[in-house]
Specification:
Radius of gyration: 17 Å
Shape: globular
CATH topology: Spore Coat Polysaccharide Biosynthesis Protein SpsA, Chain A
Main location: Golgi
Number of domains: 1
GO molecular function: hexosyltransferase activity
InterPro entries: Glyco_trans_31 (IPR002659)
Keywords: Glycoprotein, Glycosyltransferase, Golgi apparatus, Lipid metabolism, Membrane, Signal-anchor, Transferase, Transmembrane, Transmembrane helix
Subcellular location: Golgi apparatus membrane
Number of helices: 7
């Protein structure tokens, strides 16, 4: 199992160069694929194919960042992304903070105009990862899978990964310094604010609805709040290995907890 920890967390980072809708050569082998639609089949717990990438930042180049920060964001959250870049997601100049890098993770907007805006933003900042699946709350789990796959394929040397929402503030120096100076930290570290004994939402009209066909248990295993959590490289690799056998339940933080339990 992946070890879970127990603080409220948040983090930050740095950008890298990137371009428009093509995938950097070093990532093609592990990230190429079809659409992000669900595979059809008799199994009530579908798994997504690896989505085609519409936008991708450049792979991490040596030396790798100590902390890779991946921030799910909606296409319309232009102001939120700018605020993250200008504050906790930008460089912490002059500090002794271990190096970090920030990448925003998005799905596909319904409007071609929005897609053109995202392409311009990507060319300007070089920090956007976009999968070819609809950007919606229901697809947050697909975003999580995409960010884990990109981290493995394109930034595998980063010791730690931090997933943080685009509407939080993260104390990057505190998180990075804590991780860098933590003696005896678990190799498979899964660190965040832990939710215990949460019951599945069975209300069909709720966006948090979890059908019994996907998860029949009376309570979820412990999981870290999706607001922000840290994974070690080894933990992220273990989650990906377990992903194929875990139903695509929402919210995404529950899905991470289910994968961690395996």
């Amino acid at each position: 199992d992946v070890a879970a920890g127990g603080h409220d967390i948040a983090a930050g980072g740095h950008d890298a160069a990137a371009g428009a809708p093509e995938v950097p050569p070093g990532c093609v082998g592990l990230l190429s694929g079809g659409s992000g639609d669900l595979d059809a089949g008799p199994d009530p717990a579908p798994t997504p194919r690896t989505p085609r990438l519409l936008l991708s930042p450049a792979p991490c180049s040596p030396p790798a960042p100590f902390l890779l920060i991946l921030v799910p964001s909606a296409p319309s959250h232009v102001a939120e992304r700018l605020a993250v870049r200008d504050t906790w997601g930008g460089p912490w100049g002059g500090s002794a903070t271990p190096p970090a890098r920030t990448v925003f993770v998005l799905g596909s907007p319904a409007s071609p105009r929005w897609q053109r805006e995202l392409q311009r933003e990507s060319r300007q900042h070089g920090d956007m990862l976009q999968g070819d699946f609809g950007d919606s709350y229901a697809n947050l789990t697909r975003k999580t899978l995409l960010l884990l796959r990109w981290a493995r394929a394109c930034c595998d040397a980063a010791p730690f990964l931090l997933k943080a929402d685009d509407d939080v503030f993260v104390n990057v120096p505190a998180i990075a310094t804590h991780l860098a100076t933590w003696p005896g930290a678990p190799a498979r570290l899964y660190l965040g604010r832990v939710h215990w004994r949460v019951s599945p939402n069975r209300a069909p009209r709720s966006r948090h609805h979890v059908p019994e066909a996907l998860y029949a248990g009376r309570a979820f295993p412990p999981y870290c709040s999706g607001t922000a959590y840290v994974l070690s490289r080894q933990a992220a690799t273990a989650l990906l290995a377990a992903a194929a056998g875990v139903p695509l339940v929402a919210p995404e933080d529950v899905w991470v907890g289910l994968a961690a339990r395996r």
